[in-house]
Structures are given as C-alpha cells and as structure tokens.
Amino acid sequence: MNEEVRYALRDLGERMPAARLASDPWLVGRRQRRRAARRTGVVAVVAVLVGVLGLFAVLRGSGAGTMPAAAGEGVPARISLPWMWQATVEQDPPGPASVLFGGGGFGLRGIDFVDHEGKIAVVGRGGDYRMLLYGGHESTAGEGVQLSPDGRYVAHNPGDDWLTVTDLTDASDRAYSGPPDSDCCASPIAWSRDGGTLVVLDSTVESLDDRYRRIWESGSSVYGQPVTLSRLTLVDLGTGTTRVLLDGLGDWESLRTASLAAFSPDGMRIAATVGNRLSLLDRDGRTLWSRDLGPRRKLAGHGAFTADGSRIAVTDLEGCLLDCDTAALAARTWTVTWLDAATGQDVTGPTLAPVQGQALRALGWRLGTDLVAVRYEAGGGMIEGAGWNDTGYWESGRVQLIALRPDGTTEVLVDPPDEVWSLDVARDLLEAGAFGAPATEPRPFPARPLILLVAVPPALLVAVVVGVLLLWRRHRRWLRMIRSTPPMTDPPWPA
Fold it and tell me: How confident is the prediction for the chain on average, in pLDDT?
C-alpha cells in the first residue's frame, strides 16, 4: 500500500463518526442468541400446529355412506383389528355391512379411563372399518349388537333408549319405546328374514313383596334385592308397536342368550326357550307346541330353522355342564340334531360333524345346505351359580366362523385374530354363499379425536427433542467460532 492510499484511508476514518457500542456488548450478544432461540421455537410450534390442523382436517369423514354392495362383494376372507382411534359410524357411515365383530385389545376395547368405549367394529361392503361405541359397556356382536339380514341396520341398546336401530348408510338412529311396564332396556335376539320385525329380550323388575312371596312358596331361604325378570318381546320396526311373546324367562343374568329365539324363514313362527323348555309360538304369542329338552340340548341359535322351515337345529352338549375349569370348557363337544318344526318331535336330518369348543351358535344356511355357525373357544372357567353365559363378553375366548356341510366335513370361513371374541354376519351374504371376498386392512383415517391424545404428544416430544438438538448445535458452532477467532490487534497502519 503506497503512502497516498494510506493517507486517504486514515483521513476517511477520522471523518467517520465513532461507533456506538452498548455498555455491555456480551449482554447484547446473549440477547441476540435468545431471540434466535425463540424464533426456532416459534417455527417448531407452528410446524406442530400445522400438523394438528391437518389432523383435524382428516378427522372429519365424508359424511356420506357407501352405496349398497355391487355384485361379487361378500364376507371378507380375513378381518383385522381396527385402529384404536378408528372413525365411528356417525363420523363416516360405511354403508351396508358384511361383518360385525367385538372383543379385546386396544382396537376393540381401549384402555380404562382413556378409551374404554364398549366397541363393536363394522366392516362395510366397500371394505371400510368403522366403530360403534357404547360408553364403557362391553358389547357382544351378534347378540347384544345385531346386524339386520341385509346388512343395512344394527339393532342395539346404547343405554339412552329402550332399543335403537342405526342405519349404516347415513348414521341415523331410530329409538323404540317398550311396553309400559318395561324396565330400562332391550337386547336384540333375532331378526325376521325380511328385516321387518325383531325379537328382543325385554325385562321388568320384580318387587320385593313379589320376591318374598315367591321365596315363601318355593321354600327357599334366600333373600335380597329385587331381580330383573326377563321376557321375549316382538317389535314391529315399521310401526314401533310391541307385543310380549313369552314371559317368565327368569333372571336376565342367568340366561343363555345364544339359544333364546329363532324366526322361521317366513317370519310367522318363533322358536323360543324358557329354561330347558323349547316352544314354538306364532306372532301373537300363542304356543303351537312345547317340549322339555333337558339341560344338555339347546336351540342352535337364531339361524336354527332350516332353509325350507321343516326342521329346527338343536345342539347336544357332551362334556362339562356345571362348575367347569377352562380345560373342561375347551373339551366340550356340540352335535347338531333335529326337531320337526311342525310337531317338535325328534327327526332325522343331515349328519353334521361334531364341533369342539365352549359354545356353538347357528347363524343360518349357506345355499340352503351348509349350517354356518360361530364357534367359541374357552375364555375362562365357569363359576357355578354366578350367571355364567358361554357366549358372553367376559366368558368367551376367540371365535371362528365355520360351515358344517352335510357330507360331514367342516370348513373355516373366517378365522379372526385372537382378540376377536364375538362375530355377526349379514344373512343375505351368508345365504348366498358370498364368502372369501377380498380382504382390506383398516385405514387410520378418518379418525376419532382420540388420535390427538395418541399422536400429538409424541409429535410434540419429537419437536422438543429436535428443537433442543438444533439449539445445541447452534450453541456449539458459536463456541467454536469464538474460540477460533484471534484476539484483536492494533490496525496495521501507523497511528
């Protein structure tokens, strides 16, 4: 640098105003770093909020149900467990269903105090999985929650009304009122084949005076609170009218719900059970015949009438009957035998293979020849006298959907995961033999708001961890820069 340039630079520097520095430059630097950290935090929070708003957008379903199934659709060859936050029927109706199922695990029961919702999964004919929720009350598909023959409606009791029927195409509910002396609630037992009427398990409460009188007459010395006395009631779903068909079924808690009633194919007659006695009734409740089956023979289920209505299937139990442990329940064997629908007398019929398991419940007839039934595995030992029900929520283990062929062979139609403890199938698909349809996996969206409790906390944790790492890296870079900066020296030009 020559002397003239050096002189010009020094003159220019002397004319420039002095730099205004803060009294504490290090404090200013710290403030700048804090502002940068706050900006990073704000960016992270905004990113999380954008993600949450996106979740809210997908939480909402389309609100329109899938239209009825096209030709070729049927009961899927495989069902899977739903997501814990699976969308409800109300959020996004699935349209007519092929299958209902319930059970345990996160997807079908949830967690106490967080998602204990009494769940039943609905598989639409388009493959969508949706949920029916019952506010913490464990429900059983095929009995307490039952699918209509065409798969469009579900009869159930949500706890607010005597009986509710939900339309799966638009999620609308229709509530029904029971007889004037009805106590609280009704539980669906059997649909007529045309879907127009329903047999339900209804109840009244026995007064203490009546109970003391009954105890006195029977010579029993057991006293206590009133019990819930059950009966079978016929509901016309079109008009809402009800008719008590059969009274005196006894305490609700003592009933075997799988063998209570079955409609004949024409819907004009009903086979009904009281204790060990099976009766055939008309729609006015008149008894056409009645006979005692004994403790080991049971009405096979709501699909017990053969396709032509000439015979009624009953199941004969071989094995443990009372006070059984789990191994004894698992070793039970059920053999299907036949009654003449016109007289109630034993008759011959197809020889079907015996079925081993805790219980067997008939759903109907595939192509008029194969008995389709749910087989229940043992879920826990029986406590004698405790109102044990071998197809109940707490008593049953995993289930299978099977077909018993007249040639003596058995076919497994649906083999669900171990967490599935109850199952129901649309009767129109069953009778048409529409099994083995392509299976679909449950999709996580649309979702219930529960996903915010499940997904957002981990997302926030990830955001915090990433933010801390970014700040730590920024701090390390700043330290390296400070340590690598040489100390300030006098300017290279003469003073």
Answer: 85
CATH of domain 61-445: 2.120.10.30
Q: Does the structure show a pLDDT above 70 at 68?
A: no
Average pLDDT score over residue span 122-140: 92
Instruction: Label each residue of the chain as H, E or C.
Output: CCHHHHHHHHHHHHHCCCCCCCCCHHHHHHHHHHHHHHHHHHHHHHHHHHHHHHHHHHHCCCCCCCCCCCCCCCEECCCCCCCCCECECCCCCCCCEEEEEEECHHHHCCCCCCCCCCCEEEEECCCCEEEECCCCCCCCECCCEEECCCCCEEEECCCCCCEEEEECCCCCEEEECCCCCCCCCCEEEEECCCCCEEEEEEEEECCHHHHHHHHHHHCCCCCCCCCEEEEEEEEECCCCCEEEEEEEEEEHHHCCHHHCEEECCCCCEEEEEECCEEEEEECCCCEEEEEECCCCEEECCCCCECCCCCEEEEEEEECCCCCCCHHHHHCCEEEEEEEECCCCCEECCCCCCCEECCEEEEEEEECCCEEEEEEEEECCCCCCCCCCCCCCCCCEEEEEEEEECCCCCEEEEECCCCCEEEEEECHHHHHHCCEEECCCCCCCCCECCHHHHHHHHHHHHHHHHHHHHHHHHHHHHHHHHHHHCCCCCCCCCCC
Confidence band of 138 (pLDDT split at 50, 70, 90): confident
More confident call, 320 vs 61: 320
For residue 67, the model assigns a pLDDT of 39
- Averaged pLDDT, 410-424: 97
